[in-house]
Amino acid sequence: MKALIRLTAAVFIITACAGAVQGATISESIENSNRAEANRERDGARKPAGMLAFVSVGAGDVVLDYGSGGGYWSELFSPIAGGDGKIYAQQTAGERFDSRKAALTEQLAPFGNIELLPTESGTPLPLEDDSVDTVFLSYIYHHMHYAEDSGETFPAKSAALVSEFLRVLKPGGTFIVIEHAAVESATRTQSAGWHRTPPNTAKADITGVGFEFADEAPGLYMNPDDDRMNVWFETGLEGKTTTFVHKYQKPN
After folding, report:
1. What is the spatial distance between Cα 158 and Cα 147, in angstroms, rounded to a whole number?
2. Residue 230: phi, psi to the nearest 5?
3. How many CA atoms lie within 13 A of 120 on its CB side?
4. Which of 43, 159, 163, 197 is the most buried (most CB within 10 A)?
5. Selection from 59, 64, 49 nearest residue 24 by Cα
6. What is the pTM assigned to this prediction?
7. Which tens digits make up the pLDDT trace of 186-226?
8. Domain-wise residue ranges, the chain
9. Phi–psi pair at 11, nearest 5 degrees
């Protein structure tokens, strides 16, 4: 009888612990009523079901959504990570963030596990070493891969930021990069002018800092009418560009 009681207690504890970290499914996350209507309207272009499956955030995970903007992806990651998870919605500190802080705080509060993380450009991230499961970077890399004073080499400031991502990620943690694709033959100067990045340039930059290339989702955002040599917001391709999606991993 005592053994049965101990077994029953153990099952209860395991079940309770499992429930504590239970997160939403992908479809439940997309349908979450707390999502901002403006973000819902972007689902057609952003294809969240496919992206969330590729990123593979789990219950209890910690995610750094770097350059989170209006919180599109933070809102989607939040229900999946669940009550034991944490989403850091990074923003660049300054007047623009200050003007949006109150509205963003109100928008994200119902999720319960999203924390706004304003940081100064060029400063270390205020996060512990090996504390994050996933770093997510959506349509930011074209601002990072080129600087006028660096020419055709990866800018030191950007390399330092990628090194920060490497530092805060847990061993085996993932770094996701989504970016408007430029033709592979484009220089950094050319592609930056188009607000795009050649996929192999990103891959060389990021693995050069110490990440391992893990996977890509080549069919998620493809447009045969996009020649990848244009300024997408001037050519009617906003939300319709051919976009690369890379997954990198911090070595164990």
Report:
1. 9
2. -145, 160
3. 3
4. 197
5. 59
6. 0.90
7. 999 999 999 999 999 999 999 999 999 999 999 899 999 99
8. 37-249
9. -60, -40
